[in-house]
Structures are given as C-alpha cells and as structure tokens.
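QA checklist item 7 of 12: single-chain prediction sanity check.
[x] sequence parsed
[x] length recorded as 365
[x] structure emitted
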Amino acid sequence: MIGTGSTFKSAQPADATTVQDVGIKPGVQDVGIKAVAKALNLSVSTVSRALNGVYGVNAATRKLVEETAKSMGYVPHLGAKQLVGKSSNLIGVFIPQFEFEASDGFVGMFSPLQNALQSYGKDALFFSIPFSNYQNQRLTECITSRSLEGCIIFPPFSEAHPIIQEVLRLQVPCVNFEDVIGPRCSSVISDDREGGRLAGRRLLEGGHRIIGYMNGPPGIRICKERYAGFCEALSEFGIEHDSSLVVIGDFSGASGAKSAIELRHRHPEMTALFCANDLMAMGAIMEFARAGILVPEEVSIVGYDGDTFSAYTSPPLTTISHARDEISSRAVQMLMEIIKGNSGTKHSVPPQLKERQSVARWRTE
C-alpha cells in the first residue's frame, strides 16, 4: 500500500532544449541546472539528460551529476517539467512515519481519498515520510520520480515542518490538514475548537463541574484549539477552568496513563477528564482500572479523534470523531481546483460527538 520514490529522474524522456532552464525560479532557489553544469564543466544538455534519465549519458557521469546537483541544493522547476510530457494523473499522499507511539487514525482516510481521486480520473500514490528525520528534498524526489500532479499531506506536518516549506517553495498543487495556505496550497481542517466545545458541553450537561483536561505537546495547533473550545463551553456555564486541572501528555497511551493518575492524586474531587486524543484517553482508562477507579462511575472520560479501536476499550470510549469521509472528499475537490489554476483556500469541517459508555451523569448529593 505504501509507495516510495527513490530515484531522481523524470518519468518521461525529455530533450535538452525543453528542459535547459529547469532550475528553480529566481528568488526562490539560486542553484539551477546551468550552475550544476558550470560546476562540473559539462554542457547544460548533458546535465539535463543526466538529471532526467535520458539516454546518452554514461552511468558514472549520471551519478556524478546527480550527487553534485543534490549537494548544491538543486531543485527542478516543476512548471517546466510539466512541459515534458502528458499528465500522469497521479497524486502523492504523504503520511508521517513516527519513531514513537502515535495514532494511526488517518489510515481510515485512505479509501475515501482514493475513491474521490478516482472520480476525477486520478490515482493516489502513498509515501511514508519520516516525521522527525526528514531527508532534505525528499518531497521533490517523490514528485519528480513519479511525475506527480499534486500532493495531499497529512498531519502533523505543520507549516514549520521542512516538507511543508518545500511544497510552498515549489508551488506544486497541494492540500494539507494543518491550516497552511499558499498561492497553490489549500487547507481543509476538522474544527478542533468546536470539538472542544462538544466535549465540554457533554460533560457539563452530565452534571460535571470539576473536569480535568489532558493536553498534548505544548504549542501544537490542535491542542490549543481543543482546549480553547473546551474552556468556551465551561464559560457558557459560568465556569473558569482551573489551570491546576490541566496535565500535559505526549499523545501516547503511556503518557495518558501516567498523567491521568497524577491528576487524580492531585485532584481526587475530579469527576471527569477530557483528553486531547483517544490514545491518551485509553491509557487513562487502563490506569484507572489498575488503580481500582471505576470509569464512568467515579470518573467520566471523553477522548478525541474517533479512532476505530476506541470502540473496544472497557468501557467503550465516548469521543469526538472527525468527519473523515467529508474531509477526504473536500480535500480532493480543493486539490482539483488548484490544479485547474485556482488559488489556495481554507475550509473547516465540524466533528461529531460519538456517544459510548465512558461518560455517566454525575450524582449530586
């Protein structure tokens, strides 16, 4: 299912006169194909053929050109590359590869994305990209080696991540799920603030007033939005959330277990806990069970993301679920609009409360 592109060449043959000026646009990247040719004392046409996989260049020269171009920071100008041949009808879907425990809820979007793309006559190629140790120009290599027409980039690749910076620099048609907008880059997001409100209101309507909040890593957009929405829901009931009821996790189940029990010891009067993702909520349920704390009789728990496996905790987890099918179809629609020449836009899709058995009405004395 996961595809990777590892060579740095065009999928279509190209003559030198077509791609002599394939270097990145002035002002964006200084190194172009002419600079590589000058550095190696080769003709521009020879370097062009070497970089584009065209016949007539021996293996040693081709390898030297590729290595030199990469070391100099050469990036092909994708607009010129598209003049080489016909459309590939291929869209790259870039998903994060983590070195730590993380939710794989985005897998549920693969099928709806593929179905939506096929309705436009396109197909998806899936690329697994290391999140922490990103290889410079990896996105460019994937695009050029497969002649991709556009990209869909999954969370948590945010604007600060090199892969997003690269796609904005290249101006290849792109849709992301992290609120990043550019001339050829659109964003479709799940409304995390509304999701926070939904969770807060559900617990407040169940009679809970002392509610803990388990956040993810500081500084992440979705964490800020989910907590802001949660606090807004409390304010509707005239409650200002006590900052001592906030605990920080790292989105893993292990951090959820550790943080939940620490918060319970700090605030034994706490009757409910809202967690910023499902893995932490599941870790909290597991740790409470070990400690003999009943869920939901003693502590109600709400998660976030609507991951499939959250239905199989004990008790099954009440969670805020992303509208994955709608987000997928909207992302593909927005990508097609960019490919046709429209500018980047932003759209948000509201999540839904998925009611299960981890929340109970709090008994009042």
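[x] summary fact logged: Residues 1-30 have pLDDT under 50 and may be disordered.
[ ] second reviewer sign-off
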